[in-house]
Amino acid sequence: MRLLDAARRARRILGKSPTYVASRAWQEGERELDRWLAPMRERSLSRGRLLAMARASSIDELWTRLRQRPYPAWTSAMDPAALDRVEPGESARIRDAACLACARTVDLLGTGPVALGRPIDWARDYRVGMGWPGGFARSIDYVNRDRPSDVKVPWEISRLQWLITAGQAYLLDADEQYAVAARDILQEWIDGNPLGYTVNWSCTMEAAMRLFTWTWLFHVFANSPSWRDEDFRAKFLACLYLHGDFTLRHIEKADVNGNHYTADLAGLVMAGHFFGDVGNAGGWQEAGWRGLQEEIEKQVFADGVDFEASAPYHRLVCELFLWPALFRKACGASLSDSYIQRLRAMARFAAAYSRRDGTSPLWGDADDARALPFGGQKLGDHRYLVSLIALAFGDNDLAAQAEGPRSELVWVVGPELAASFAPAARSPASSMAFPHGGAYVMRAGDHHVFIDCGPVGLAGRGGHGHNDALSFEAWLAGAPVIIDRGSFVYTASFEKRNEFRSTSSHNTPGIDGAEMNRFDPGNLWNLQDDAQAECTTWRAGDEQDLFAGRHQGYRRLGVDVAREISLDKQSGRLEIVDTIDGQGEHQIVVPLHLAPSVRVERSGAAIRLASAGRLFSLSASDDGWELAIEPTSISPSYGVVEPSQRLVWRRQGALPARLAITIKPDGTDISCPP
Fold first, then answer.
1. Mean pLDDT, to the nearest integer, of 396-409?
2. Secondary-structure percent of the chain, ordered helix, strand, coil, rounded to 5
């Protein structure tokens, strides 16, 4: 299997330009040399060499100098009462989570609460009890296609973001138990992960993401008595420096780059500004920032939508572009207007797709990734991005759209400034089109409809995008009704990975069981660019919004698919009209996936839905269509599934065909407790 995957990668590379192939071959050869050079680099970065690079007389002197450098997040003591005034109950949440972290108990990526033990097995998928052997990282088959193990579990554990609450609790209470726990866990990681020789070095992005957490932990615990041991300090700083060096040597640059390359660049800026003039750190910072300025123009459309066609990855990529900018700002370095404008646009998109209840669409892939997760809000709540960017760059228009918890804000700017960030007048939410990214948002009061009619993702290669052209999610009268199925898992199950990104898992017509964008069976992040979706009409009015779009994904079958969606802003009446045109007979399937909270009742042709204390009536044309209510599952976050149901209309016959579905709020569900 590994040879087959390597052959596929080789074919993809050989399909590129000769210049790219030559550059990639040279790069691969250099990286293969790390089989011998990485251990030598690790051994050679002795205490003496580190001090020589820093021009420091002792580790304590270097430690003090680094501690005095700026950092873009709050790392000073914090009054618990001040925190709770901004975000009630936040100090208790942090202490509870910190106790679990000190006990080495984590709950991530669908594992449920897991005791990692002592010492931690850093190469283990605790969810299924399988792991990866030690050895040169580039030789480790971390996909393990024929096993249910998921490399994201050890990677996520090794990011050490679950230690952030221990750091926060230390800043609240100055209790040394948190410092001791963090020190011991970091020491175990360093001892258990020699440079380039475990699965946690198999992906450069993982080294880059650790740079965020480790630099923050340093500034939090730098003055702790438990962190004064000179041997620990030397090993910690050496390992951190090697992370920066490794990230540059193994940077994940390709002809089209996504979040991995962005994370690498961001990590270089974080490490570069952390170390300042130590060794090659200045070069890391310059290379990282130069790359980020180029990539934000390539990866983020002018309307602010990340080109990977995923709301969760939009959030991650926004953080990856934001944190280096905040670090530069803290260090007094300049930021270009164009860079700031792209960040503002990303925040505007996040504000538009975020719903009043703090949820966001399950659009595209999701792996729960964050750069520095400080807050206690729900995983799908992205509204803090609006506040952070509005405050960082003095954007009053953005500030007027800010809402939701402020716990993220507190740990970036401190409780006093976070408390003062309360816009006097919030702008009423309005419908917005993002034509470059292909996202359309209908909004009116508690009604929110998110529609996808954009590129397939990653510049037409798929990436973290799904087969979801013309699909939509709908919250009506504040209640979840129609939802995407989410993403579930990646390499843990090729079958489930492809199922959740397939056409049939989205609220869009399917023809003859075919995919609108064809799959590459051996590549979980590739889609053919078949659909070419386009919006033909967008009208946002005071009384009604109207969207019309179409795609070409079934032209190879001789079929065209078009859809109209209209929202009555007063009543919340939502109408979906599908027109399937072409020649010959075809099987058409139109599914609507219901949110897990939705109850459905059918009486003849009448359908009634109940969700979050609201009732809805649903009706549809019956010209040759058969309706079924079927079980399904929804994945609200990585590795997690919840049972639900879906409504499916099917028709076998000659074209053209038309299906009109109407969903209308129909009062309050009196059977639902207040």
1. 94
2. 40, 20, 40
- What is the rounded distance in angstroms from the CA atom of residue 136 to the CA atom of residue 194? 10
Of how many residues is the chain composed? 674
Q: What is the DSSP letter of 544?
A: E
Cis check: omega of the bond before 674, within 30 degrees of 0: no
**Sign of the C-alpha dihedral, residues 163, 167, 173, 176?**
positive
Cα first-last separation, the chain: 55
User: What whole-number distance in Å separates Cα of residue 338 and Cα of residue 295?
Assistant: 12
- Show the tokens assigned to 296: 């934000």
- Residue 365, number of CB atoms within 10 A of its CB: 28
From 252, 243, 73, 89, select the one nearest 167 (Cα to Cα). 73
Place of tokens 């590379």: 13
* Residue 225 per-residue DSSP state: G
pLDDT in tens, 107-160: 999 999 999 999 999 999 999 999 999 999 999 999 988 889 999 999 999 999
Identify the H or E element spanning 614. strand 614-620
Q: Do residues 123 and 103 lie in contact, with contact meaning Cβ atoms separated by under 8 Å? A: no
Are 362 and 296 spatial neighbours (Cβ–Cβ below 8 Å)? Answer: no
Rounded Cα distance, 63 and 241, in Å: 13
Which residue reads 């979706």 in tokens? 533
Q: How confident is the model at residue 274 (pLDDT cuts 50, 70, 90)?
A: very high
d(CA 406, CA 418): 7
Angle at 410 between CA 408 and CA 414, to 5 degrees: 145
Q: What is the DSSP string of 167-222?
A: HHHHHHH--HHHHHHHHHHHHHHHHH--TT-SGGGSSHHHHHHHHHHHHHHHHHHT
Give per-residue burial for 153-188: e unless 16+ CB within 10 Å, then b.
bbbbbbbbbbbbbbbbbbbbbeeeebbbbbbbbbbb
| Secondary structure (3-state) at 356 | coil
The pair of three-digit structure tokens given for residue 216, joined into one six-digit string = 């923050």
In the block, tokens 């009706």 appear at 619
* Joined tokens for residue 9: 């990668």
Which residues lie closer than 8 Å to 158 by C-beta, 6 or more apart? 122, 189, 193, 200, 206, 210
Separation in Å, CA 558 to CA 478, 555, 657: 40, 5, 14
- CA torsion, points 473, 511, 606, 629, in degrees to nearest 10? -80
- Distance in angstroms (rounded) separating the CA atoms of residues 427 and 279: 49
The span from the CA of 403 to the CA of 383, in Å, is 7
Nearest-10 Cα torsion for 33, 34, 40, 45: 130
> Is 475 within 8 Å of 594 (Cβ atoms)?
no
Query: Of 215, 252, 255, which is closest to residue 236 (Cα–Cα)?
Result: 215
Task: Count Cβ neighbours within 10 Å for each residue of 551-585 and write b for 16 or more, e otherwise.
Answer: bbbbeeeebbbbbbbbbbbeebbbbbbbbbebeee
Query: Are 391 and 409 a contacting pair, CB within 8 Å?
Result: yes
- Name the DSSP letter for residue 298: H
Cα distance between residue 451 and residue 472, in whole Å: 4
* DSSP codes joined into one string, 546-593: EEEEEE-TTGGGTEEEEEEEEEETTT--EEEEEEEEESSEEEEEEEEE
Mean pLDDT confidence for 646-663: 97
Mean pLDDT of all residues in 175-204: 98
Give φ, ψ of 52 to 5 degrees.
-65, -45
